[in-house]
Design goal:
- Among the domains are: 1-66, no CATH class; 80-220, Beta Polymerase, domain 2 (2-Layer Sandwich).
- Helices cover 55% and strands 7% of the residues.
- The chain has helices spanning 8-16, 25-35, 37-46, 50-60, 68-96, 106-113, 135-144, 160-166, 203-209, 223-236, 248-257, 262-271, 275-289, 295-301, 305-318, 330-340, 344-351, 355-362, 370-383; strands at 103-104, 125-129, 148-149, 168-174, 180-186, 211-212, 219-220.
- Strand 4 (168-174) and strand 5 form a beta hairpin.
- Helix 1 (8-16) crosses helix 3, helix 4 packs across helix 5 (68-96) and helix 10 packs across helix 12 (262-271).
- The radius of gyration is 21 Å and the shape is globular.
- 39% of the residues are buried.
Length: 388
């Protein structure tokens, strides 16, 4: 993939949000002086990375020269994430008392397990994974402790049965300090509406390979699983939809912090038939954040040149920055998503799962109901899509 076209301030954002141990301090200082503080602050706000940039500037620029709004933003996020992580530990302890292992996913796991700069870890919710066989027990424990099952999407039905069908549940809860938190309890590690269950790792296998985190009962995915999960999650957001740009820090922080066994990682990607989605996630992190992903890994995963060129050109057109801006029309979004599949047969399976999978998901037995439930599923895929 070629470099993306970007403005000076966007290039500076890319420099500032990479892992803080690998900042090019001289380059950042020079670019900061050229761009100007206010332009950088406005761009950081627009892209949801203000506290991450604040952390980088505090390392690279004389803190006495920085306006107070940078430190204010960092402290605000830090206090929020401290409360979130305390709640994560609380839930992990509750579930552990009932012999239910809990895996902290994505930014939650990265923050609690490997990147302790809480102010530089903005997040809107907490995502965790449990075994499918223990999902109902975990749900019961959460509701007994004040968690209210409630989906954020207006088209979702607030029921445990629907949560089981979709791969996980969302809960609304108020923390001890009065903050509100959205908590996602998943039994599918990705649970994308377009990705099929057989194209994502099995929860029980991930839990078995997971590793402990010092000071908490919450666990972290093994490095290869962790990288695969965040890459698929970034693809689920089509790389640029909210929270968009910030998601590429997940790939960067895992690669720079954990020791990834690349042959194992590549084999798992191929086995799940997710080469295209994972390649794009890794390639974008390498281009934008200079994440040290081996070239041979990208070469091994790379789909056809025409697909890479088309997807990159399309992403450039809709904009890799400003994740809250409208990106696609409904039809354009669907067409772009088709490109994420490695093959046309996978795309067809994504649209029309087998009768066996449909019966398992919707709980019917007669093939006569197949057309009805296929229509219901397609409508759900369209209606529940984020309006970006």
């Amino acid at each position: 993939m070629k470099n993306f076209e970007m403005t000076k301030v966007e290039a500076l954002l890319c420099q500032c949000i990479r892992h803080c141990d690998y900042l090019n301090q001289q380059k950042i200082l020079k670019m900061y002086e050229e761009v100007g503080d206010r332009a950088l602050y406005d761009a950081a706000q627009l892209n949801g990375v203000t506290s991450i940039v604040a952390h980088a500037l505090n390392i690279c620029v004389n803190s006495g020269d920085l306006p107070a709004y940078w430190s204010d933003e960092y402290i605000k996020v830090e206090q929020k994430i401290l409360a979130y992580m305390a709640e994560l530990d609380k839930v992990a302890n509750l579930l552990a008392q009932n012999d239910i292992p809990l895996i902290a996913l994505k930014n939650s796991g990265i923050t609690r397990g490997m990147y302790p700069y809480y102010g530089a870890c903005p997040m809107g919710d907490i995502d965790v994974l449990v075994s499918p066989s223990q999902f109902r027990d975990a749900h019961r424990i959460l509701t007994e402790h004040g968690y209210q099952l409630k989906f954020r999407c207006e088209f979702e039905e607030d029921s445990l049965e629907e949560a089981e069908k979709g791969g996980g549940a969302e809960y609304s809860v108020h923390l001890e300090d009065g903050r509100h938190l959205w908590f996602e309890l998943q039994w599918r590690p990705v649970a994308g509406r377009w990705i099929q269950p057989d194209q994502e790792p099995r929860a029980d296998e991930l839990i078995e390979r997971s590793i402990s985190i010092s000071g908490t009962k919450a666990r972290l995915l093994a490095p290869e699983d962790n990288l695969l999960q965040v890459a698929l999650h970034t693809a689920k957001h089509t790389f640029v939809r909210a929270p968009g740009f910030r998601l590429h820090t997940d790939v960067d922080r895992i690669v720079r912090t954990q020791k990834v066994d690349w042959p194992i990682f590549v084999n798992r990607v191929k086995k799940l038939r997710t080469r295209t989605a994972v390649f794009m996630s890794l390639a974008m992190a390498k281009i934008l954040l200079d994440t040290p992903i081996p070239n041979e890994v990208l070469s091994d995963l790379k789909p056809g040149k025409w697909k890479v060129r088309l997807m990159q050109a399309w992403l450039q057109k809709v904009g890799i920055f400003e994740p809250d801006a409208k990106k696609w029309s409904r039809f354009g979004y669907i067409v772009f998503v088709t490109l994420l599949y490695d093959s046309f047969s996978d795309f067809i399976s994504g649209l029309f799962p087998s009768a066996q999978k449909m019966k398992a998901q919707y709980g019917f037995t007669s093939n006569l109901y197949l057309p009805y439930y296929h229509a219901k599923r397609l409508a759900s895929l369209l209606l529940k899509r984020v309006n970006t």
